[in-house]
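Bit of a strange request maybe. I'm writing a small parser for structure token strings and I need a real example to test against, not something I typed by hand. Could someone generate the tokens for this chain?
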Amino acid sequence: MTQPVPSRPQIRFRGRSFMATVLAPLPPVADWLGELDALGRRAPAFFAGRPVILDLTGLRLTRADLEELVADLSARDIAILGVEGAPPGVLGPGLPPALSGGRPAGEVAPPEGDAPAADAAPDAAAPPSPARSLILDQPVRSGQTILHLEGDVIVMGAVASGAEVIAGGSIHVYGPLRGRAIAGAAGHAGARIWCRKFEPELVSIDGLYKAADDLDAAFRAQAVEVRLVEDAIRLALLDRG
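Reply from user aminoacidic:
Good idea to test on real output. This should exercise your parser:
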């Protein structure tokens, strides 16, 4: 008697959206890399944990030029996820893949101001710059990125799925947190994340992160505090009493 062959589970495909930062080099590329270095001095953690797309639209690069550019970015700890607008025949083995069809999500404003010279002596008479909080009275909508490396970010409403809040200090969300919350992005391990309703796509503090699939489901939809404890992300319920 022939035994029935057990049915195999069907292959399942799941889509998942991620926010990416697009870098668009301008000629001359050497000068553009110098500006990128200046940004790195002002905000060392600006690209931490960020997927990056390289937009080559309008640039006339050979394969050797592109290999050198990707290596220069890698040396700055900027990993390229994919390339848009590459000239025909330039991409291939050993280079990031071609990407297309991305939906624009607005510009991400880099931190302003010049970094002090490395060899400049601090002015003992000058008082330390106070941390500045950014208060948002409106919700952060899908596709928006809020970047504030000078202090805390306080969101009076919700952070929607597909939105991203990046703070040099802590993040306070007085509504649901459904997008990405990245606190301590300027190297502040003591930063925390507080929200009234915990449903994030990702939380991160000082470069350590956990995505939604890695978060304890018991905390979902609760009022939660996120902090670092011994280099690990820890969640705790907020006291509602």
